[in-house]
Amino acid sequence: MAETNAAMHPPLEGIRVIDLTRVLSGPFCTMMLGDMGAEVIKIETAKGDPTRAQGTLKDGFSWYYASFNRNKKSLVLDLYREEGKRVLERLIEEADVLVDNFRPGVLAAMGFGAERLKKINPRLVTASINGYGSTGPYVDRPAFDFIAQAMSGLMSVNGAEGTPPMRVAQPITDLVAGLYCAFGIVSALRARDLNGVGQHVETAMMNGAISMMAYLASEHLATGQLPERTGNDHPLVAPYGLFAARDGQIAVAPSNDVILQRFLNALQLGHLMDDPRYDTNEKRFARRDELSQLIDQALSNGTQDEWIDHLNAAGVPCGKVQNLAEAFNDPQVQAQEMVIEVEQPHHGPIRMLGFPVKLTGTPCKVARPAPLLGGDTRDVLAEAGFSGSEIEELLEASVVRATH
Amino acid sequence: MAETNAAMHPPLEGIRVIDLTRVLSGPFCTMMLGDMGAEVIKIETAKGDPTRAQGTLKDGFSWYYASFNRNKKSLVLDLYREEGKRVLERLIEEADVLVDNFRPGVLAAMGFGAERLKKINPRLVTASINGYGSTGPYVDRPAFDFIAQAMSGLMSVNGAEGTPPMRVAQPITDLVAGLYCAFGIVSALRARDLNGVGQHVETAMMNGAISMMAYLASEHLATGQLPERTGNDHPLVAPYGLFAARDGQIAVAPSNDVILQRFLNALQLGHLMDDPRYDTNEKRFARRDELSQLIDQALSNGTQDEWIDHLNAAGVPCGKVQNLAEAFNDPQVQAQEMVIEVEQPHHGPIRMLGFPVKLTGTPCKVARPAPLLGGDTRDVLAEAGFSGSEIEELLEASVVRATH
Q1: Residues A183 and A270 occupy one common structural domain
Q2: CA angle centred on B180, ends B178 and B183, rounded to 5°
Q3: What range does the domain containing B311 cover?
Q4: Residue B352 and residue A28: Cα distance in Å, rounded?
Q5: Does residue B7 have a pLDDT over 90?
Q6: Which of A158, B51, B130, B343 is the least buried, fewest Cβ under 10 Å from its Cβ?
Q7: In this complex, which of B55, B176, B226 lies closest to A324 when CB atoms are compared?
Q8: Could you give the CA distance from residue B334 to residue A155 in angstroms, rounded to a whole number?
Q9: In which band, very low, low, confident or very high, does the pLDDT at B235 lie, cut at 50, 70 and 90?
Q10: Is A234 among the catalytic positions?
Q11: InterPro entries, alphabetically (chains A, B) (predicted)?
């Protein structure tokens, strides 16, 4: 419970990560390692991570790329050439972590299979994020968030009643697999402290998606029944969902009888809990349309904001459905600094999401903005022990590239 | 890259976690710590975690509870009483981690504020999972997944075109906040190794939800425009989504022109990429209904399974929309052991989700099934140094309870 203390070392200080990942799941994972103080060396091709050219570019810089690559260095390296592979080998010798999000087998085909990596550096923690895992019949399939959502069962429960299965709008199978991998990597680093040797960490988009099924999974496994799509309604509890205040809807989630009683009391409908038509969840569920009308009627004498203040004060979880602009301008979100502004040299300030993990002693910070393509090539090689003339030769032969 | 080795110590061996959490976000977090080898001591009230009575009970045991509480011990402790608080204090003296998912301020009101915890055990890593964070205007509000989804902007992008915002069916704000917290705790443990002192970790359901917004957030921040709900269609790319094979739909995600060319070639529609009506993404997006019809027509000469094999072999990410039964019986999911069976003493086998983080050297395992309520009370107290007569006194006074 130490206070923030500039003298404290961040969690991953001294950890060097060689980052072979691109686009989303991998860069999200390694960004979290960088946010925790690791030195992340992002290896890019001459064209750079595809996200450098995706989404809106402002003043020549992609805000999508910027928001997933803060706290990283960029080294442009041609891994199709033997000289490039030798550079990677030397980097791995001195590294703590190697992360890739290739399909299983690609890294080995490049000459960096598990056995060789262990020989190069037995303390190395290696980590892979892929679509389906590295064993099983689908190991060679290409993966994508939408497909992992489809196959995992995630889509089958998402959507409104009576409508087809629907994907979740956020690329959550990428993000969740990346987050699990960051957790696995830090865990494996701690195991290395105990054992003296590294090991391999693997997470898959499909497995991560399945792990999000929570009680939907346990209910299915217990009963064999398939969960139905219920949109904003709770599959088992009523009342629950969106209700109409005078000037708009509010979301209310009375998840148990105690909270429901508070909610109904606040609406001066407390007597309904004793009404033989509504005195059990089963009865309320069967008459939920009727009950919703009574609630909407009671809510119509106040505004959204009035009811949200009143109900929260009464201990009833509720809030407005907000769009991204409303959410990012919400005073709570601002107090939590969940949108931050990072000065991008030569490109002005870039706004991006903040840190979801708050640490009091060693808070996450932006130690460096997203790198220019090859912006750290010379520095990284010099720190890795390459001589000035070696670096010039590699540049001359376009095995590596540098922006300056 | 060590092989699995029984002599290797798991990542969190020797780490003792005092777990004050209940229901979902917190138990999910501490289960991950337990899966990584920590000793997790779950403190329960005499009634137990509410999930013990939720979902389907088989032979008296909740599969919901079982699936979130493996690898934990249960100690029943009355924290409303001074004697109970003294027991907690003694447990904290010897612990490494204390986790709660109370509203901010509740733990301090119980007498365990930050300063006191630091005095009891300066090496303690404390962690809180809450709804909105512990600073800002909403700090006292009760939280719930549905509300965090509504307020964070998550719902605003989820849903079909022309329909209202819709929640994601999975309780992802609970799970993501729990997962971030597990990552933060292991990171803080590593910082403790460097600094000699603990610190506080905090994650919030609202912040976790916002962090999942990915490129939807960066695009909004760059342009000021609000993302639209597009259901299963990609907001920017066409073709993309669900298409009709002879016996059912397949999900196809050609995320760039290279993959799209492969997809169209496989359908013998490769020429469309040169057709002036379809030769840019903009044109394809404008004529996506027309294009979908051409694709459906080409797909009609094969079955789902035939096309899925053929397209994956051609490097096109695709798959079936599966319900939970299909997903859990999928040979890939079985190969990845994402559904496991745990023998629950006195209650028979319980099926639950497996481990999303795969470690080669020290794989996660079920070292113990979910505990009986108070099943470890005596053992935990004895290990914490309570004498036999102290334990009997505490039991006698119902400060603690034990099942045996």
Answers
A1: no
A2: 110
A3: 241-327
A4: 28
A5: no
A6: B343
A7: B226
A8: 19
A9: confident
A10: yes
A11: CoA-transferase_III_domain (IPR050483), CoA-Trfase_fam_III (IPR003673), CoA-Trfase_III_dom3_sf (IPR044855), CoA-Trfase_III_dom_1_sf (IPR023606)
